[in-house]
UniProtKB/TrEMBL annotation:
The lineage of its organism: Bacteria, Bacillati, Actinomycetota, Actinomycetes, Streptosporangiales. It is found in: Cell membrane. It comes from Actinomadura vinacea. The chain crosses the membrane at residues 12-31, 69-91, 103-122, 134-152, 177-200, 235-256. PROSITE patterns: ABC_TM1. It comes from the Bacteria. Residues 65-256 form the ABC transmembrane type-1 domain. Belongs to the binding-protein-dependent transport system permease family. This is Carbohydrate ABC transporter permease. InterPro entries: MetI-like (IPR000515), MetI-like_sf (IPR035906). Keywords: Cell membrane, Membrane, Transmembrane, Transmembrane helix, Transport. It is a multi-pass membrane protein.
Amino acid sequence: MRVGIGVRYGILIVLAATVLVPFLGIALAALHPPGSQVGGLGPPDDWSLEAFTLAWERGGFTDLMRSSVLIAVCVVPLSVVLATLAGYGLAVLKVWGGRTLSAAFVLGLTLPVELVVVALYFNLREVGLTNSHLGIILAEAALFMPFGVYWMQTHFSSVPKELIEAARIDGAKDVGVLLRVLLPVSWPAVTTLSVLYFMWSWNQFLLVLVMMQDPERRTAPTGLGLFVGQYSTDVPLLAAASLIVIAPIVLVYLAFQRNFVNGITQGAIKG
């Protein structure tokens, strides 16, 4: 028994080290003075935060971060609301053609962005939505919808039918059942979906690169891609820029860690 527990902890430690050691290396590299040589995981001789300031200024991250925040803040609530309504309609209301719609959403999970980005560009260009934040927001919301609908439909299907029937007996309408009965017990699932949507929206690269021609209106990950091409030999600057881009994701995950883990755990158990 003790041997089995030791093996499990050993595996977890190895996996944690596999994830954390690269981040440690990036953090140590970013603390070197700009332009200095970085050797492995060794700490810098002269500790400096100048690389962060210089990377922020040279990369134009003020505008890039503003665009990323704007897009993510719009995409997440829009997508979560639509996915919740669609999942509720398919799982609880049993709308007409629900099986076909569910199969279509599942099929949409297999659709990569690379396959549709060119056609999407020409379609949005016809209605004047290229090179605009609105076009990116609508495109991301549509691309994220299949997973969100599948996630919420699966969650609502696992809710005890007796809970819904009791609410209907008490006179609750469809909207009341959703808002007063299902959503209060669905907070972990909704939070998990929101965090995933934020991560996907923040990390979106190809779609923004194709749709947004104005470099100053692009997002932080696309700006980081151009930054790497310009300062490929300055490791401290690259490390600092990378940490700047991933910092919001880490903060959001830490803020909603408990609900995120609960949502993932519930989905795994119920699945």
